[in-house]
Model the fold of this input.
Amino acid sequence: MSQDIYKEMTDKIMLTGSKIIPKLFKMIADQKEATLLMAMPGSPEQLAENVRKPVKKVEKMCRELYHKGLAFKSFKTGNLGYKMCRDMIQFHDATILWPEAPKAYHDLWQKFMEEEWTHFARMAEQFSPRAFTRILPVEKSIDIGKQQILDADSVNKIIESAEVVAVTRCTCSVIAHKCDKPLDVCLQVNNAARYTLDRGTGREISKEEALGILKDCEEKGLVHMTMNKAHVGHFICNCCDCCCQVLPMVINEGLKFCDPSRYQAMIDPELCSFCGTCQDRCYFNALVEVETERGQEVMRVVAENCMGCGLCHVTCPEEAISMVAVRAPDFIPA
Done:
């Protein structure tokens, strides 16, 4: 059987030309498993016919590929079927949480992130009309006033309205381990939570524990991110600027992989003590030192850089920072 099947799998997830992705596929799937993956989607019975193997053997292989994160369950026809991971994001997130993944597998993923990801990210951005993810603000940072906090703006409402919540390790931090920030911080909601519990890659948690994780993330300097949709529920990632696969692309490359929140930081110059704590907390170079007409040194928000995360508010000793809505509700895609 040709070794080129791993290149074919790489083509299928739109990473043609990568030298590392075929090696990742080869490390996690033998050629029989690779052949089965390339025969997907289909029910075990359909797949067994396609690859000319007994149904029971194919069922067992499908379950193992699901456990590894290479295959996903599908119920579109009303019966259980399996489909191969559709893109790099699914391949990355699902297989890194494979419980038996060896360190060499994680290290090879990090090699891809450091050597090839930027190239493919630049190409992917050209074909993406809107960012896949969006930042959510620290909720207590929002100046209520006359502002409306949409459910899609609120980490608390996403959790409180959830039917089931689970927590997994942050896949970016698992492979990068560039800092000592918390690792068990990726919150999965509803169907995403059911998926991770079914696979055994995370644990179910109460809403109270989830809210506690969010508070701890805010204090530790992790940015809340979610799917860029108006509906609530799916996931809340909590990311740093060094390990995340998205934020460095936004900060260093200017790629539109993540939309800002609907909010922007505002600093009250009368309250600002110019301590610089907010500037230390900002990943996006959105806070600069200025001097007022009266000769007072204060911090100023660079509007075009502010992503509206609210981390600057959390540790401001003077409570001089609040978040104000600068984008209409329809900024969030329906």
Q: What stands out?
A: The mean pLDDT is 93. The chain has two domains: 5-126, 133-331.
